[in-house]
Amino acid sequence: MRRIPLGAALGLIITVLFFLAAIFAPLLAPYGMAEVVGGVWEPASDKFWLGTDNIGRDLLTRLIYGGRTTIFIATAATLVAFGVGTALGLLAAVLGGWADQALSRFVDLVMSIPALIFALVVLSVTPTTVLVLVLVMGLLESTRVFRLSRAVAVDITVMDYVEAARLRGERRTWIIFREILPNALSPLVSELGLRFIFGVLFISTLSFLGLGVQPPQADWGGIVKENKEGIVYGIPAALYPAVAIAALSISVNLVADWVLNRTSSLKGGRG
Amino acid sequence: MTQLLKIRDLKIGATVYPPGEPTRWMEIVKGVSLDLEKGKVVGLIGESGAGKSTIGLSALAYGRGGVEITGGSVDVNGRDILKIRPGALRKLRGAEVTYVAQSAAAAFNPARKLMDQVIETSLEHGRLSKSEAEARAVELFRTLGLPDPETFGKRYPHQVSGGQLQRAMTAMALCPGPDLVIFDEPTTALDVTTQIDVLAAIKTAIRETGVAAIYITHDLAVVAQVSDHIMVLRHGETVEYGETDQIINAPREEYTRALVSVRQIEHVEKGPGTEPVLKVEHITARYRGLPRDVLHDINVEVYPGQTLAVVGESGSGKSTLARVITGLLPPSEGSVTFDGRTLSSAMEGRTREDLRQVQMIYQMADTAMNPRQTVGTIIGRPLEFYFGLRGAEKKRRVKDLLEKIEMGDGFLDRYPAELSGGQKQRVCIARALAAEPQLILCDEVTSALDPLVADGILKLLLDLQKTENVAYMFITHDLATVRAIADSIAVMYQGQVVRYGPKTQVLSPPFDDYTDLLLSSVPEMELGWLEQVLNTRKMQSAGN
C-alpha cells in the first residue's frame, strides 16, 4: 500500500468528518433543529459557539442539520446523475449509429438550456419535495456525466479486446459492465467528486433563491438566505455556511484527484 | 583517423514503477564503451529493453522520459558533452549531432510544409542562410531518391508516403551538415518493399555526405547492410563488438549466433487436405464511405490443421480479409463457407458455435487484452462462455492452457501490464485455444515482437497446430515468417490475390513481378546484399 499524500489525507479526513456530522447530526447538535433558544444574532459565546441566527436559533445546530440536508440531497442527486448518465453514455457508445445520435442530440438540447433556469422553471410548477429536488438535479447533472462517459467509452469500444469480446458473441451487458466500465472508471470517479460539489452548490443556490429546501428545514443555502441581512451589520452568520461549502468542496476534490492519480497510473494499469 | 565519438563506461539508470511493487532505481545501461571515427557507421543491435536507443541518445546527452545518465563520459569532437553547459549543449544538438526517429509520421508537424521543417534546424543554428539551406535540402532530396526534388519540399507531410517521409527526416537530419547522425530504427515501421529503398537512400546519403552515424535497429540483417561495425547489446551490456563481417560470418558469442540464425525454423509443407475447413469465394468488400473496393474477388481455402499465409504490404487488404471472415465487415459480394456451411455475412447473424470455431489473435497483444482483467479471467472467460465451465473445473482447464503456452500457473492472478511482450502474445494464444476452434486467424501476431521472441511464438504455434489440429490463417508482411510456418500462401497486392498455391510452388520461379519484389526485399544476413538486389529489381513498391 502506497502512502496517502498529505493533501489527500487531509481531504479524506475533512470529508469523512463532514459525512459523520451529517449522519449523526441529532447526536452532535447541541439544540433542536428549529428550536428558538436565544436572542436575534447573538454573538459567539460558550452557550452558542457560533452565535444565533436571525430568529434566535443556535447557528451551529442549524449548520450541522443544514449540512445533513445539503449533503444528503447532493449525494442522492449525484448518484442519480451517475446511474442515468453512465448507463446511457456507455449504451450510446456501444450501440453507435442512430441510437447514439438520438441520445447525444437530446442531451445537447437539454444542455443548451442553462441548468439553473431549467431547474427554476421545473421547480416552480412542481411541489418542492426532497424527492423532486433530487430527481430534477440528478437528471440535469446526468447530461454532463453522459457526455463524459460516452466520450471515454467511444475510445474504449474500438480497442481490440472489446472487438475480441464481440467476436466471442458476448452480450451487450457483459461488454458494457465487464469490458468497458472498469476501464472508464478512473475519469468517472474524478468526475464523481466534481459533480458532487456541483450538486452541493446547485442545491444551495436553489435554496438561496427560495426554490430548494423549504423552511424550517435547515440547509446551507437556506442559512445564507435567512442571515444575509446580517452582513450589513457586520454579523458573520451568513458566512459560516459558505466556509462549510468551500471546505467540503476542496477536500472532496483533493480526494478525487488522488483517486484519479492512483487509478489512471500508466505504469500499473490497475487501480 | 579522427576520433569523432568516444563513449567510455557509460552508465544510465531510470526510476521504474513495477506494478504492485515499490518504485525502484534500475540501471539500464551498465558500462558501455564505444568508438566512432569520422565517416564511419556503427550499428547498435539488440532486443527491446537492451538499451540501444538509450545509448544512441546519450550522444546527444539526452535521457528520454526520466532516464538519467549517471556515469562515464561521452566525448564528441574531443569534449565531454555530459559536462558542458546547457547553452553549449543546445548548440550541439541539431547541429553537430542530429537524430532520425522511428516514426516519421509522428515526428513531423502536420500543419507545416516539409521544406520549412527540413531546414528549420539549419536556420535555428545559423549554419546556413535560408536560400543555402533550401538549395542543400533539394540536393539531399535528390541524393535520397525522392520524386521531384525541386518541388518535394512544398508538400505537407500527409501528402507523401511513409517511406518518403522517413527519407525527408533523414534530409532534415543531414541538412545542417552534422558530424554525427543517430538513426533510431528508421525502417522498422516500414514495409519490406519500402524499407529497402529507404535503406539504400540512407546508405547513399551517408556515403556522399561523409557523415558518421549510429544506426539502431533490432534487425541484424538490416544493420549489416549499412554499418562498418556492429555492437550487440543485451540487458544494457555489450555482448559482442566487432566489424560487421566478423559479427555476421563468425560470431563469437552464443547470443549473437542466436540472432544470426534467427528465423531458420524448418517447416515441411503438408499436402493439400481433402475438404477445406474454410472456403472464401469471390469476396469483394469495401468500407462504408470509401469509393473503391478494398478487396476484389478473393478466393482462398484453408485446410484442417494447415496454415494459409496471407502476405502483402500495408494497404493490400490482408487484414480486411480477416475482418470479412470474422463477420466484422460484411462483404458486398461473395461468401464464406466454414466446414461445409455458408456463414452469415455479418457477425450478428452467426450462432455461438460459428463464433467459437473461428478465433482471432491480434498484432498488438497490449490492446487485445482488457488491462483490468487477470490472466485467469482472460483465458477463463471463453471456457465459461462456450462450455459453461465454472469453479475448480474452469481453473484446472486454465492451468492446462497455461501449461500449453509454456507459462506456469503462477500467472493466473497477474494483470497484462505485468507480462512481457512475448508472454502477452502467449496469453492471447491461450485465449484463442480455450474456445477449441478449428481455425485461428493470426493478424501479424509476431510483427511487434523481437526476433528471438517472435521465433518462440512461431514455434509454439507450430507445436500447437500438431497437438490441437487447428488451422491458421496467418496474415503477415514478413516472408521469413511465411517460410517458417506456411503450407500454402496467398500473395495480396492492392486488394487482389496475385499468387496463390502451395508454399513450394508460390516460392519457386517463375515469379510474377510483385512476388519477385516482395521476395527480394527481405533483408538477408549477407554483406553486399542491398546493392545486389537494387541492381536486379523489376518494379517498385506501391507505397513508394
Describe the secondary-structure layout.
The complex is a heterodimer of chains A (271) and B (544).
Chain A: H1 6-23, H2 25-28, H3 59-95, H4 97-111, H5 115-125, H6 130-157, H7 160-168, H8 172-208, H9 220-227, H10 239-263
Chain B: E1 3-16, E2 24-37, E3 41-45, H1 52-58, E4 67-76, E5 79-80, H2 86-92, E6 97-100, H3 104-107, H4 114-124, H5 130-143, H6 149-152, H7 162-174, E7 180-184, H8 192-209, E8 212-217, H9 220-226, E9 229-234, E10 237-243, H10 244-249, H11 254-260, E11 278-285, E12 295-302, E13 307-311, H12 318-326, E14 333-338, E15 341-342, H13 352-357, E16 358-361, H14 365-368, H15 375-387, H16 391-404, H17 421-434, E17 439-443, H18 451-468, E18 471-476, H19 479-485, E19 488-493, E20 496-502, H20 503-506, H21 513-521, H22 529-536
Parallel strand pairs in B: 3-8, 3-9, 6-7, 7-8, 13-18, 13-19, 16-17, 17-18
Antiparallel strand pairs in B: 1-2, 1-4, 4-5, 9-10, 11-12, 11-14, 14-15, 19-20
Rg over CA atoms of chain B: 25 Å
Largest interface (C-beta under 8 Å): A-B, 20 and 31 residues
Count of individual beta strands of chain B: 20
User: Which fold does the CATH topology of one domain in chain A refer to?
Assistant: MetI-like fold
Oligomeric assembly: heterodimer
Strand content of chain A: under 5%
Number of E strands of chain A = 0
- Global Rg of chain A: 22 Å
Distance, first to last CA of chain B: 38 Å
Q: Which regions of chain B have little confidence, pLDDT < 50, spanning 5+ residues?
A: none
Helix content of chain A: over 70%
Shape of chain A: elongated
CATH top level assignment of one domain in chain A: Mainly Alpha
Average pLDDT of chain B: 86
